[in-house]
Specification:
Layout lengths: L1 E5 L6 H12 L2 E4 H14 L7 H10 L2 E4 L2 E4 L2 E2 L7 H11 L2 H16 L3 E5 L2 H5 L5 E6 L2 H14 L6 H17 L12 E4 L5 H16 L1
Helix pairs in contact: 1-9, 2-3, 2-4, 3-5, 4-8, 7-8
The chain binds cytidine-5'-diphosphate (CDP) (2 copies).
């Protein structure tokens, strides 16, 4: 069983994917976390996002591992540190590099090779799992997505204006949609789910209903 979930930032992809994974007893792979790990490494090594060669080398040396909810990069627990607004901002800088994508996509395909999996990201239905039986494209109004992110930041004690969160999300979506390699696309065979105004449970139920109907 292969399930692909794509969509812009804050659409609810990872929340829903984790729930579906638990319900069907399959592996969840957060591909965004992998790109975040590379951006985090670049920030640790001096913050130079213009040195493509160095970024590729850092990506080649990165050993990314998932353990339950935790993410490790080269042995270090980076679960929290890859979620900061600074890492979010810079992740699309590393995600547009062809060699970085090839490296991570190969790892993602390998994980999906011998087990049932649900993955979320931007290029899952198009590049990573083009043959997936189930493809979903989650979307939501950008203001609602920014409000969701603000609530998350507030809960962590990080103060940030809604307007600037919204602007960053729009910038990131534009970067993700307009890059040449593995852009965010809504593939033709994806089911589009607009999550605006919908609770997590409603979205999850709609996706499960579709999967169960196809399986039956
Ligand atoms: O959770 P959120 O949607 O904010 O971000 P994420 O899924 O963790 O992804 C962070 C960034 O990684 C995205 O903005 C993309 O630039 C990049 N990414 C990608 O290029 N391809 C993927 N399959 C997943 C993420
Ligand atoms: O992975 P992605 O960036 O697409 O979004 P997420 O991290 O799963 O969700 C962003 C935030 O929106 C989380 O705090 C979710 O709890 C929340 N959310 C929501 O309030 N309503 C939904 N229908 C989906 C997500």
């Amino acid at each position: 069983m292969q399930i692909a979930i794509d969509g812009p930032a804050g659409a609810g992809k990872s929340t829903i994917a984790k729930m579906i994974a638990a319900d069907y007893g399959i592996i969840y792979l957060d591909t965004g976390a992998m790109y975040r790990c590379i951006a985090h490494r670049v920030l640790l090594q001096g913050d130079d996002f213009s040195d493509t060669e160095k970024i590729i080398k850092l990506a080649q040396e990165a050993e990314i591992r998932f353990e339950g909810e935790k993410v490790f990069c080269n042995g270090e627990d980076v679960t929290e540190s890859i979620r900061t607004p600074l890492v979010s901002l810079h992740t699309s800088d590393v995600a547009c590099i062809k060699e970085v994508r090839e490296l991570l996509v190969a790892q993602q395909k390998k994980i999906a090779g011998d087990q049932s999996v649900i993955m979320d990201g931007r290029d899952i239905g198009s590049v990573v799992l083009p043959e997936a039986e189930y493809k979903f494209f989650l979307d939501a109004d950008v203001t609602e997505r920014a409000i969701r992110r603000k609530k998350e930041l507030d809960a962590k004690g990080i103060e940030k204006e809604l307007a600037s969160i919204k602007q960053e999300i729009q910038q990131r979506d534009d970067n993700d949609r307009n890059r040449v390699e593995g852009p965010l696309v809504q593939v033709e065979d994806a089911i589009v789910v607009d999550t605006t105004g919908k609770s997590i449970d409603e979205v999850c139920a709609a996706i499960k209903k579709y999967i169960d109907e196809v399986r039956a």
